[in-house]
Amino acid sequence: MDIIILGTAYPYRGGLAVYNERLAHEFQNEGDNVEIFTISLQYPSFLFPGKTQYSEDSAPQDLKISRLVNSCNPLNWIKVGRMIRDRKPDLVVIKFWLPFMAPCLGTIARIARSNGHTRVVSILDNVIPHEHRPGDRLFARYFVNSVNGFVAMSDSVLADVQTLDSTRTKVFCRHPLYDNFGEPVEREEAIEYLGLNSSQRYMLFFGLIRDYKGLDLMLRAYADSRFRKMNVKLIVAGEFYSGSEKYFELEKELGLEGMVIWKSDFVPDSQVRYYFGAADIVVQPYKSATQSGVTQIAYHFEKPMLVTNVGGLAEIVPDGQAGYVVEPDERQIADALVDFFRSNRQKHFRDGLLQEKRQYSWSNMTRSVRKAMEDVD
Description:
Blueprint: E1 2-6, H1 15-29, E2 33-41, E3 65-70, H2 74-87, E4 91-96, H3 102-112, E5 119-124, H4 136-144, E6 149-152, H5 155-164, E7 169-172, H6 187-194, E8 201-206, H7 215-222, E9 232-237, H8 245-253, E10 260-263, H9 272-278, E11 281-284, H10 293-300, E12 305-308, H11 313-316, E13 323-326, H12 330-342, H13 346-357, H14 362-374
Parallel strand pairs: 1-2, 1-4, 2-3, 4-5, 5-6, 6-7, 8-9, 8-11, 9-10, 11-12, 12-13
Helix pairs in contact: 1-14, 2-3, 3-4, 6-9, 7-12
């Protein structure tokens, strides 16, 4: 097939770009012709909470990526839509994550499929975002009505899109593994690379820091007196997308100064494997969620996880097999983590991790996209 993936890719950074590039590779491996139409302007700078939107890594050499889409310019949407309409690709794949992008992506999709040949399938991260804003449902509905079919990566997202549309094809497929960060490294190499102490054990909170991800819950759990008697440190690795001061103030209030290792910059793709190599367990104390790319990185590196029972996280991490599922409660988080270190559960979880990770292949995702496309009238 001739396939266009419409969305974030290099030179932009982050999970969306990684996902679209990895998906393009999988389609190419299966014999399809793939081009990514990526963003020339993603967000106006005043709307972007991080330090930079751009990657410091090298461009992927084996992908065709064209920077064409301006998210804020309706004339550009019409131009790109007509370009796709006239090219007549068999399939356009759009990964949808934020209602802000709905007018842009939805308009392009409507024009593109007007040729009577091109079908548009959206892979849904979220339909309604964790951090609600006025107009979210209106924009989301506009986008939903612009495409032919959907692939949802969690039951909660599947339920959300069903409230907006009851007729279009919907296929369920778990978020694939993020296996593009390289092979695992030995703990000793990771510890040395990050300048850590090899005599200590580490919990890893990884990824962009937003309020819904529950770092405050993790800090309160870590303040449990039982950790004072254990040689365990908390690594927080990721850029703040909400105010940092409240977390540093909470660290001081809880008496955790010197116990938390802050790596509060965006982690380049080339360094991800070192953080996971150093970690004994990955913690995701989220207050709300659909699914999480961090979970799929942890599976790739075969690291046990603590997740909270919100959204689709409990669907992905079976309690007692690949890690712990607890309520978003500081005491339950602390109890599980204390059990992990006191009882040396790392080996116990290994077989479960190996078994679970098998179901998260990229071929499952491309198969699901093709099914969503084939089911379209």
